[in-house]
Amino acid sequence: MLLGIDVGGTHTDAVAVDRNGVAASCKVRTDHADLLVSVRGALENILSRVDRAQVRRLNLSTTLSTNAIVEGRTEEVGVLLIPGPGIDPYNAMLCRHFHVLSGSIDHRGTEVKRLDQAEVAAAVDSCLKADIRVFAVAGKFSTRNPRHENAVRLALCRGEGACARADFLTLGHELGGRLNFPRRTATAFFNGAVWRLYNRFADAVEKTLADLNLGHVKVNVLKADGGTFPLALSRRMPVQSIFSGPAASVMGIIALCDITHDSVILDIGGTTTDIAVFAGGAPLVEQDGIHIGSHPTLVRALKVHSIGIGGDSALTVLNGVVRVGPNRLGPAVAEGGSVPTLVDALNAAGLCALGDAEASRSALAVLARTHGREPEALAKEAVDAAAGSIHAAVREMTAEINDRPVYTIHELLEGRRIVPKKVYVMGGPAEVMKMPLFRKFQLSTEVPPDYAVANAVGAALTRSTWDLELFADTEKNVLFIPSLQHRENIPRTYTLEEAKRDAVRHLLGHLGSLGVVLDSAEAQITRADSFNMVDGLATVGRNIRVKCQVKPGVAFRLTGRA
Amino acid sequence: MLKAVNSLGIIFFPAFDWSISPTHPEREERLLYTQDQLKEEGLFDIEGIREYKPGVASVEDVERAHFCFPEVDAVTTRSHLISAGGAITAAKLVMDKVHDRAFALVRPPGHHAMKVVHGSRGFCNINIEAVMIEWLREHYGVRRIAVVDTDCHHGDGTQDIYWHDPDVLFISLHQDGRTLYPGTGFPKECGGPTALGRTINIPLPPGASDEGLLMALDRVVLPILADFQPEIIVNSAGQDNHFSDPITNMNITAQGYAELNRRLAPHLAVLEGGYAIQGALPYVNLGICLAMAGLDSSGVREPGFDPERLRQPRKVTDYIAEVCEIAGGLYFNPPKEPKDGVFADKWFVRRKNIYYDTDEITEAQTEMLRLCGNCRGLLKIESRSTNNPLCLGLEIPFHACDECRDLGYKILEESQLKGEFRYIQFVNKREKEFVRYGF
Lengths: 562, 439
Ligand SMILES: [Zn+2]
Ligand SMILES: [Zn+2]
Fold this sequence. Notes:
Chain A is α/β, with parallel strands linked by helices. Helix content of chain A is 33%, strand content 26%. Chain A has 14 helices and 27 strands.
């Protein structure tokens, strides 16, 4: 039995699933003041209906870190940067305690200028004086050589085992091997900013599970890229748990539907519709990473685009044209609100009967009269407008995906265009929006069973994933995997094939050490390049880059059930 | 967060799977570190800067700029068509007002490719700027265009293509041809009889630094541009003037390139040469991107940058001042007659021998321009090479007069009947007709 909990903005959804399907599910209101109350409530509800001894795993998706950042309830972080030459680092100044240090590493990992130890000491002292206990350190090209970042750690912690002068420290290169210094900086910063809050929550979750006799259950946390990671690891990388909500929905669709074609996934919620695009059966991952606030980060995420159209989106009429959203001005009239919404339009058009459908009809009648229209026609037009906006957003998103940069002739020639052949719809209004959407898309449109708790199903079934970049330079005889802080010497004869094998070996080894046992077939090489490096007219070595990941996926599917 | 003052589209196409040979300077690794640098700097996260994938130039896009013998497919690979396609994509972004400016960071380069193509010269098969310019003229009706070539090598291919074209101003700044391939690019080369003073060459002595480059820009290039009033300024942005480049002898820095770009303010930049792929390209390309976007680039410093060591000797400065004097004068007071050909009846005739160093081909050609008076004139080139027997290229220009157009068709018909040409390529730009014979 696997449990899934998705702590959402309005509701906390929970399910218990096994291979026979959803054994129990519930929705409780999210208590924003104390998320743990919601988690506990949902758990108790589920456990009252299933045998708790059968529960093996709990996957949790939470908005905790996201909300903390949005609401500014984060901790102050001391940011120490070693940017070297280039774009002025103060353009991306994130916080008050922001220190720029001298020293530089180039694109091949060569130290061009040494780190200034006196500057490091001064920066650390200044932060300590301001009672900063959490630090983020990032150097340009630290993913090619972490020497300067490690030196700052040493200076800050004075070499002691547990760092005496800082409670927590994030080094940029630990976040992965991808290049982008401003993003690395922001990611390290946010990781520190939510670290304490997140760890308090993790403590409480563990205590709750123990209280509920679930101490034996393995707990994983959802990431935005459609994978999970063990709670213990999430304590060091809380930033990875940010924006995992849409990923839960997408993974839910994968669990509930047998997706094989290029497809569009629509999750229609109260205020927004999340759109995801699948290439073949697989969800697309954002090439760079999500934005937190206005800051781009390296946090990997499924490619999900949100537009401001949901069941609670307000209707407006401008110059005779009906619009839906993007504003939400309270709940539907059917639910006691005062401004008619998409739900009211669906009610008035006779497509559903949610809450007080009569109230919806009178509200639409008032709106129609003001603009000299027939109420039913207006309601239908509103529904079509919502479907139309969603359709337009999907087209725009596919065009953008098909326009993404490519770097080799092969990619350009093989660059398959994504042409959606099927639409999957989930979320509250899914069933009633099915036909209006079908009319716009003219594509097979499916609404899976359990669509209302698909996100929690997704959370429950999502597998653990990890990814890493391996970087080898045979001229320098060095191999480096930044996210594992693994560096080793390699011979000049080291090849791309060996690099691919090593990348897979380290990826599975790392997951194994976290208790996640996977077959090597589940690891996937997503990039493998080897460049001859030439000096004069002779090849002096090879520059090898390998990216490897465990593909996002689900433990098993719940398809083919009546 | 940073926001570009001029919005900038970047077409980055490093062609990671194409090279001339594994150890050739023009190889897969060439833009690798540039890509690393641009990504690591977060350039594409700056508001107003976006990366695009290149289009692919068609055979006709190439034929608008070149006579290719025996045919386009025989002298190009996919990578050449993508590189030229990348330049076209850049132009389209600017013309459609998607961006204020665009930079095609693509390879392979093109500025040594001349009007006639039998193979590869100086690592170039087709002239990507020319393919782009001809595309711009056909699709957007742009008429006056300026190309400022800042590659260390003389842009002899672009010069050749626009030799007779008064609407395309070509200015090349380069290391003196007596000391570097291709050995041309002297002030006296200043255009054909209908376009005298529309080709300007500014040879710089070895050892010239940022000071000399900017002096030539300020004293010659900018005043000419101010007078010529082009609708579009293109920078052939070769980067082998860098002090660390292995195949040249100049002392330009990333800062110098950025400043040049800031003052020149081109709408379009197209990457040409540059072979210091680790120590120069990443920094120069970053500097140019920032300058094009109107952003601060003063923090860009390459390893080994030492202003003292790179200081320009007084002698070099004085020499450049003299060159500027001569070159600038040629635009405003061009000679009355061209020196490199003869007038025969209503035609101007030039004979040329061309060596393709990369492919080891020699070519002999006779170029004939009809001196019309009502239009740019019909162009006719007879060419034979170690690769091909006698071939004919015929071109009716944009805005051709009826007489030149009709004569073009008449010559085409006669040439076919006589059968003395193995291949014929005929391009009527006025009516967009492309015809090839001999396959
Ligand atoms: Zn060059
Ligand atoms: Zn004419």
